[in-house]
Input
Amino acid sequence: MIADVLADTTSRMQRAVEAAKEDFSTVRTGRANPQMFQKVLVEYYGTPTPLAQLASLANPEARTLNVTPYDKSALKAIEQAIRDMPNLGANPTNDGNLIRVTMPELTADRRKEYVKLVKSKGEDAKVHVRGIRRKAKDELDALKSELGEDEIARAEKELDSLTRQHVDLIDEAVKRKEAELLEV
Output
């Protein structure tokens, strides 16, 4: 029973860490990266649709990204969605067939803003991991009547170790992304 709770908690914490890393990849660095456009939602026939479902993304140069829509009627909507995306600062141009997105050079101030954004996202991820820990602790407390207090205490120590381990993984990812952002 304890093993089931800990296994479930471990897998949920790992998913939280992966989600945090994926979220960090959407923050812009010096290069244009198709992953930055993962969260762009385009209003397509009245439905918010992810950009990746409407167009192919190609990266021909370091600071340029080509967006080729599958349906040419969505060109204007895609261009508007990219322009409206916060924290991107992209400048899309439409030539009738594809959209070229040129990413401006990052200034030192903008880099610092992105570092703050990444740290904020990292804190949110750590809060999520701690929430998973709290739920697992409640599940373990519910098992106290069936199992001994010593077993529960050992399981709680293991749970704390798991939490610390996953929080450290998030901290590592934040440091890596910060180094990538500050690299000129």
